[in-house]
Write a structure and sequence with these properties.
Blueprint lengths: L4 H11 L4 H14 L8 H7 L3 E4 L13 E4 L14 H5 L8 H22 L3 H15 L5 H11 L1
Antiparallel strand pairs: 1-2
Helix pairs in contact: 1-3, 5-6, 6-7
Length: 156
Amino acid sequence: MELSRDELAGVVDLFGALPPADLVSAGEELAYKRGTTFDGGNIDDAITTYHLVRFGPDAGVVEGADETLLAAGPAAFPALPDGAEDLPHIFDREPVTPDRAALGTVVEERFRTDAARALGDGTGEIDRLLDTSYDIEAWAPVDLGDIRDRLDAAAD
């Protein structure tokens, strides 16, 4: 069984943020209920496409965090997969509220790195990153106008 990017974001959003291993465990629990197995291979893809955001404990996104966590990202439209409403009871994990400004800083730094790489390599990622820049600005208090201008010029 594979969860869509938005379903992965929906599971994470139930808790505010989750360690990657807990997201895998949640996927395995949902798959078990369906009599199948959870692949989990698309978690990295969801991170790459900004459906999920990975951040460390030093990012200041979740107070008291002591491990790497995932949060729903700017490209996500979080959706709950069937059976996900039971996950908070199964995992008995208190929900957290990520600091959106701090999370925005994490995303902005990563986005600028991804954009610089795409501009340097001339990869096909330029159009996707250009679109994602608008999602990021609508999602968090960041300004990506300068890098978007560079991406737009390279896309032409």
